[in-house]
Amino acid sequence: MSRKRISIFTGHFGSGKTEISINFALNLSRSGFKTAIVDFDIINPYFRATDAKKILSDNSVYLISPIYANTNVDVPALSPETNALIEKKEYNAVFDVGGDDLGAKALARYNEELLREGYEMYFVINTKRPMTDSIPKIRGMIREIENVSGLKVTRLVNNTNLLVNTTIDDVMNGHMLIKEVSDKEKIPIEFVSGFCKYISGIEKLVECEVLCLEKNIKLPWD
Amino acid sequence: MGEKFLMKGNEVIAEAALRAGCRFYFGYPITPQTEIAHYLAKKMPEVGGTFLQAESETAAINMVYGAASAGVRVMTSSSSPGISLKQEGISFIACAELPAVIVNIVRCGPGLGGILPAQCDYFQAVKGGGHGDYKMVVLAPYSIQELYELTVDAFNISDKYRTITMIMGEGILGQMMETVEFKDVENNIHIEKPWATTGTGMKREKNIITSIYIKPEVLEEHNRKLQAKYKEIEKNEIRVESYNCEDADVIVAAFGTVARIISNVIPMAQKEGIKVGLIRPISLWPFPVKEFEKYAHVPKAFLTVELNAGQMLEDVRLAVNGKKPVHFHGRMGGMIPDEAEILEEIKKITRS
Fold it and tell me: Cβ of B257 under 8 Å from any chain A Cβ?
């Protein structure tokens, strides 16, 4: 699935970027690629890639976290290790970026390095989120993220879901909408993602790849 | 019912406020509730409302005081240290009998504390964090759907009694995502506000909103009026949910998201032959005293589980009134108890 060695996941906050980044990184590592994931979220201190520390290390995915992640301090910070990772060509790097243009702004710091190394920038869409439930809203957010990061979205991801209430119809309705975005923006849909038990059979309905997600970010009562 | 969305608790509070007809929001950002402001900053202009990021929490609460005086539906939100800063204004608004909705997405304290979830502001909310003999309605939802419904309700309750209604949730409730199904038409109760300072139009005497009463007799009279109103709220606005309490060996009292952990403990305990009941106060004030009285004779003992050092515990003890022992298990500092440790506490009670 990985086209370039650097994969950047952007999108609206709550679109599912973190679960997708973790699963994407786990898949890369399990396929034998040397993989690192960067917890690049400067926006939200709750529910982040660092929460999946254990499963990532169990699967040999190297995790780069901000030093304050999962402490009681709310200080947005990026790890200096990020620079080193971009230079380490033997690594596949997965960036879990914070939500919206506010989160994507942090990418601008590495704009020069990323343009030089080459990247895929994924834009994750859940059409059941009220700020991304229409074509103009989705296109507007793509523009905002591109503008602040100085990078281009190269792939779309359909992650339409209502968590445990998701139906195949929800995912397919989202897919139709995202297809139109894809046509208008001339950006391909790279894959459809969702928790395995809610999207089984989807591979027969869509032309793109399917990323079946394991749940790694959990609530205390899950 | 209407369309389903996947939303964060904080977004739902903001959307519910808009649906309830709230067109004025004044606030100051603080984790873990900033998405409320973020959402309203985007949406308020679309509906012709006012979103204003004030220079401080103190400024924001006094803007609420002003807007509420003019009879509009108004909201502010913050998290623990920010709510502390608002206390003076809260006392003034309560005395002036103004309807307002205040949201506290609680983080752990004391002091600057941390950003992780807690329930350590229970006392502050239900016992009067500000000065003087006042009360405010305090509602504690445990799911995103309930958060939506109670936020809309909060505006109705506030208008009906000319009171502050607080929505209090743990940090995690603001941050987590669940499906929410919005109603096609909201149950917005329209209540006339002849007391509001909307201009006399040269047709009536001027309305005065105040919290200063110079003559002691008048101030005592005003206090009596407030207390009578609080009695009325205690009579009408209790919200509580009980589960599995008949013949329970132990009844657990928990509010907010902690009740969800207890829901998982109940079948675990059942497997070990222990019947566990749950009383979940939804309105923390007025407190569901009668629900505890109703089941006071049933279990061997009560156990309250909270994300604090034991606050609701005192109200449970008052309600159980010595009929049964009331034990406590709590975590602090942003820590959350797991099912196993709660089950262990329950077993300690049944063994003793």
Answer: yes
Domain of residue B20 covers: 4-236
The total domain count for chain B is 2
Mind telling me how many Å the CA of B305 is from chain A's nearest CA?
A: 14
Which residues, 6+ apart, have CB-to-CB distance to B181 below 8 Å?
Answer: B1, B2, B3, B4, B145
Let me know whether B259 and B320 are in one domain: yes
Whether residue B273 has pLDDT greater than 60? yes
Is the complex ipTM higher than 0.85? yes
Question: Mind listing the domains of chain A with CATH numbers?
Answer: 6-213 (3.40.50.300)
Q: Which residues contact B32 (CB under 8 A, 6 or more apart)?
A: A45, A46, B10, B79, B105, B107, B115, B117, B171, B174, B175
Interface test with B, best of A41, A43, A46 (most B CBs within 10 A): A46
Whether residue B78 contacts residue B33, with contact meaning beta carbons closer than 8 Å, is answered with: yes
Average pLDDT, integer, range B177-192 = 96
Residues B162, B294 within the same domain: no
Which member of B5, B171, B263 has the closest CB to residue A130? B5
- Considering the domain architecture, whether residues B192 and B256 belong to the same structural domain is answered as no
- The answer to whether residues B129 and B259 belong to one domain is no
CA dihedral of residues A134, A139, A144, A146 (deg, nearest 10): 140
Percentage with pLDDT > 90 across chain B: 98
Mean of pLDDT values over B114-125: 96
Chain B residues with beta carbon closer than 8 angstroms to that of A219: 172, 176
Mean pLDDT across chain B, nearest whole number? Answer: 97
Statement to judge: residues B229 and B269 lie in one domain: no
**Chain B residue at shortest CA distance from A170:** B4
- pLDDT bin (cut points 50, 70, 90) of residue B1 is low
Cβ atoms B257, B172 nearer than 8 A: yes
How close is the nearest chain B Cα to the Cα of A189, in Å? Answer: 22
Cβ contact B113–A72 (<8 Å): yes
Indicate whether B215 pLDDT > 80: yes
The closest CB to that of A72, out of B261, B264, B334, belongs to B334
